[in-house]
Design goal:
alpha/beta, globular
Length: about 100
Amino acid sequence: MLNTDYKNGVLTVYLNGEIDHNRAANLRTSIDGQLNALRPRTLELDFSKVNFMDSSGIGLIMGRYRSIGLIGGELKISNIPQNLSRIIELSGIGTLGVLK
């Protein structure tokens, strides 16, 4: 079950646990369904409870960046745990201006 909150045009998705290939596929489907239904102005991915992420997590972020952009919105990434900051840094996601 995906924990989300939608207020004032902002869809916040509270991610948790591990984001690997299988989990990322499920998350993509769930998040994209909500993007299509709600068409938010901003999609915020909250990573505060994510304890592991591989390259599939980077793909998840980049795909949602594209998806929200196609509907005229913006992506924000928040609460990245210290143990994930290196993979985020190396991926170049910071250059997109999405880190909160």
